[in-house]
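Example: B box-type domain-containing protein.
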Amino acid sequence: MATASKSCGVCELRHITKPSIVWCTECDEGLCTECNEHHSLSKSSRSHCVIPFTEYQKLPADILKFTQYCTKHDKKYQIYCQKHEFPCCSKCIVESHNECRDFVELDDVIHNVKTSNAMCELEETLVEVAENLQKIRQNQQDNLTKFKESRKGIETEIKKTRIKINDHLDKLQEDLMKKLYAEEEKENSKICQLLSSLERRKQK
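Written out as C-alpha cells, the predicted fold is:
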C-alpha cells in the first residue's frame, strides 16, 4: 500500500476530483462510488479486494508503506527474488536481477507465508493480544465506573458534611447573637439607670 490520495485515482486521470469511498488493495488506489461500481463489475477487477476508505485511513503508517507496485517502474510486483529477498516487477528482473536464478511467483510466496506455522503462531499471538487488549479495556471501563460511583459517594458525604457545618455555624451564630443582644440590653439598662440617677441629682 502507498500513501493514499483522498481523491478517486481513476477520476484523477480524467482530471476530475471525486472523493474515494473504497480502497482497492490490488489496484493500490482509491475509488469513488461510480468507479467502484464499474470496478466491481469488470472481469479484470471484480475479484479485487476493496475496503472502506475510512478503514484504510486508520491503518498504521508502517502498513501503508507497503505497495504492490514497483516504485521505480510503476509496474505490479509479480516475482520474488529469493537471493535478494525482494519482490520484482518484469522490468526489475531485466535491469537488476538478470543474473539471479532463484525466482518464485510472488503469489506462491504470499500463500506459503499465510499457511506457514510461523504465520499461524503469529495469528494466535495476535488473537491473544486482541483478547488481552479487550480485557484491559474492560478493566479500564470498570475502573471508570468505580471511579464515578466513588466520586458520587464522596460528593454525597461532602454535601452532608457541609450541611452539618452550616447547621453548626447557624447554631453558633444564633447563640452569639443571643449573647450579644443580652449584653446590649444589660448595658442599656445600666446606662438608663445612670442617666436617671444623674437626672434626679440635677433636679435637687
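DSSP finds seven helices and six strands in the chain.
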